[in-house]
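Fold it.
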Amino acid sequence: MEVKKLYYRIGEVAEMFNVAPSTIRYWESEFEVLRPRKNNKGNRLFTERDMRYLQIIYQLVKVKGYTIQGAKDAMKTKFDKLEENAMMLRTLNDARAFLVDLDKQLAEKQKSM
């Protein structure tokens, strides 16, 4: 089972969402709710809370095709529902990853028999 991290670096976050780190920095500048911590070197450290916000932003902008302003407006008016959907999507993705890993383990056991 995968252990959740306390903080994610911007490269990890960008990879998870399949976007460039510059896109993550741009979203940070546009969305007030997205405020990652920064270490002494100035590197961004994203929390689980930030990841939920990024999931919402990603769904609105990249999946549904909202403009940045449209996404901001949606987050102001429908935030609770958007957050609930993002949490369900994350749970489903985690479950899928677990099942894929389990399937690989079972396939390896069958090969060794």
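DSSP finds five helices and three strands in the chain.
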